[in-house]
Amino acid sequence: MFRQKLSIQIRFNDIDLMGHVNNSVYFNYFDLGRVSYFDEVFKGGIEYRKKGVVIAGTNTNFFQQISLNDHIEVVTKVTKIGNKSFKLHQQIRGVDDKSIKCESHTTMVCFDFANNCSMEMPESWRNDIRNFEKELF
Q1: Angstrom distance (rounded) from CA 95 to CA 84
Q2: For residues 58 and 89, what is the distance between their CA atoms, to the nearest angstrom?
Q3: pLDDT tens for residues 23-49?
């Protein structure tokens, strides 16, 4: 179950010559979903210029094309928490029919930008995720 979702406005410049959203733009939508998720879960409690998260890896599958007039949303959830990292599962879905247009699994690493290195996940972040994703942890 996805507790967090974000409606996406498709822009004209997202569309390629084939008349659908270019595959590279999907990653922008996932970025918007991640930021929205972090804002909701951490309530603005991450100082991104000091300590934050970076993407270590992502696996994305495309299932259906998206057109200019489609109504879509990005849904996001954390599926696993490690010592220094966590796994995100995201989908871009049709709002009207809930069809999955694209799906991504991403490994996020907690990062100390002042020291330019990975770091242990703060306990407060773990608790915020656990409290938000109640049925998973």
Answers
A1: 34
A2: 10
A3: 999 999 999 999 999 999 988 677 777
Picking from 24, 41, 45, 21, the residue whose alpha carbon sits closest to that of residue 33 is: 41
Q: Indicate yes or no: pTM above 0.85.
A: yes
Angstrom distances, CA of residue 113 to CA of 52, 69, 108: 7, 40, 14
The dihedral built from the CA positions of residue 78, 76, 60 and 85, taken in this order, carries a sign that is negative
How far is the C-alpha of 11 from the C-alpha of 22, rounded, in Å?
11
Q: At what angle do helices 123-132 and 23-42 cross, to 10 degrees?
A: 100
Residue carrying the six token digits 């690493």: 109
* Nearest Cα residue to 63 out of 23, 7, 105, 103: 103
Residues 10/94, Cβ–Cβ less than 8 Å: no
- What SS3 class is residue 121? coil
Rounded-to-5 percentages of helix, strand, coil across the chain: 25, 40, 35
For 54-109, write each residue's pLDDT tens digit: 999 999 999 999 999 999 999 999 999 999 999 999 999 999 999 999 999 999 99
